[in-house]
Amino acid sequence: MAIKYSRQRQEIKNFLMSRKDHPTADVVYMNVRQQYPNISLGTVYRNLTLLADMGEITRLHLGDGVDHFDADTSPHYHFVCSKCGQVMDLHMNNIDSIVDIAGMNFNGEIQGHITYFYGICGNCNEPDNEN
């Protein structure tokens, strides 16, 4: 089934493509609303879900109770700061061999993995930012 073009959906995707901080739906809504003042939060949620289901964006479940979104759908890893909650891309070599390691004692078929790295980001780790 073909999905009808939507200017609002395209603006949501364009906004995500302009960001590297993996925003939540609320952040997307607050920013897209500047271009489309009548857009509802429900419309933003529906379009984010549709874009994720179509594989045009990635939905990240980071354990903080809210979904974050990433326009970069290429295989890559994320770092989450345990102090400030910032989410950033990690530029590193591929670790797909972990699938083979995980499957060594598993009686099934592992088809992929999602890996998040946690710790303290450089900004929070600065001596001036100690709380």
Architecture overview:
The protein has helices spanning 7-17, 25-35, 41-53, 97-103, 122-125, and strands at 58-61, 67-70, 77-81, 87-90, 116-119. The protein is α+β, with helices and mostly antiparallel strands. The protein has a three-stranded mixed beta sheet, with no helix packed on it. Strands 1-2 form a two-stranded antiparallel sheet. The longest helix has 13 residues, at 41-53. The mean pLDDT is 93.
Number of β-strand runs? 5
The computed structural class is alpha+beta
Report the order of strands and helices. Answer: HHHEEEEHEH
Average predicted local confidence, pLDDT: 93
The percent of residues in helical segments reads 25-40%
The low-pLDDT segments are none
Report, as a whole number of angstroms, the end-to-end distance. 53 Å
Kindly estimate the percentage of residues that lie in beta strands according to DSSP.
15-25%
Which word captures the global form? flat
- Largest sheet geometry: 3 strands, mixed
Radius of gyration: 17 Å
Strand line-up across the major sheet = 4-3-5
The total of helices stands at 5
What key phrases describe this protein's structure?
131 residues, alpha+beta, two-stranded antiparallel ribbon, 5 helices
What secondary-structure arrangement, pairings included, does this model have?
Layout: H1 7-17, H2 25-35, H3 41-53, E1 58-61, E2 67-70, E3 77-81, E4 87-90, H4 97-103, E5 116-119, H5 122-125
Parallel strand pairs: 3-5
Antiparallel strand pairs: 1-2, 3-4
